[in-house]
Each structure stands twice: as C-alpha cells, then as structure tokens.
Specification:
mainly alpha, 146 residues
C-alpha cells in the first residue's frame, strides 16, 4: 500500500501562518491564481440522465463560479466529477444491498475516482492550492536565468 502525502495547505492558510503579507512561513511568496475568463454556464445534457449528477452540479457550480474557480475549459472536468459522484452513490447503494467482494471493489474504485476529481477540482481545503500560478519575483530583474 502506498502512502499519500497530506497535500498542500490552502493558499489563505499559508498566508495566515506566514505573518507577512503575501508570504508563507518560509518567507516565500504565495502566488495569485491565474486571470482566466470565469464560469461554466448551465448544466450540460450529458448529466441530465442522472438526478444525482445534476443535483451535484447545481450544488457545487454556483459557489465555485461565485469564487471564480471555474473557467469554460473546466466544463468537462466538472461533468466528470458530477458523474463520478453519482457513480459513488450508486456503488454505496449497491454495496449496502449486496455485501460481496465484487460490490466492495466497485465501491472502493468509485471512492478513488471521486477522490481524484475532488483533488483535481480543488474541492477540498488542501486541494485549493493547485490554482496558484507562478509569477516572477520583483527582485529577480538581474537574474540571467529569469
């Protein structure tokens, strides 16, 4: 069994722990998020067949759009996450009805898939830091490699 790292702390928590504006505890700059066009729009027909997927879309998308975390290019990833959520619920129901090695594996696989999408979309506090981008240091003008 492989051990996963605990993940990165959210951007705002790193700034709070840093004690200096815009810096983390190691005095490194905490970088801003990219300036993409924001929003994904209405739920696509791809999830209309699944009430659970559609409900999850309607639950997460408004908040993520309000926080400007989504861009049009993220639409397919959000659809995949919502479908993974619906699959996870189905797998849990299936395992509740029939406890067998087969249904256990289905449930574990659905949980892993859902967890990957949660991290990918920044839907957990530690995953939010994936939205940072690199910006040049202000004091690096003389760096020939900058």
């Amino acid at each position: 069994m492989t051990r996963q790292s605990p993940g990165r702390k959210p951007r705002n928590l790193r700034i709070l722990e840093g004690g200096e504006t815009g810096k983390d505890a190691g005095k490194r700059p905490v970088l801003p998020v990219p300036a993409f066009e924001r929003g994904v729009g209405a739920a696509p027909p791809a999830i209309a067949d699944s009430p659970e997927a559609l409900a999850e879309w309607e639950r997460i998308v408004p908040g993520m759009e309000r926080l400007e975390l989504l861009k049009p290019e993220d639409r397919s990833a959000v659809v995949s996450y919502c479908l993974a959520w619906a699959d996870y619920l189905d797998a849990r129901r299936m395992y509740g009805e029939e406890r067998s090695p087969r249904t256990w594996k289905i449930r574990v696989d659905a949980d892993r898939t859902l967890h990957r999408w949660v991290r990918e979309l920044g839907l957990s506090p530690s995953a939010e830091s994936i939205f940072e981008k690199a910006v040049p240091d202000e004091g690096e003008d003389d760096n020939p490699f900058g």
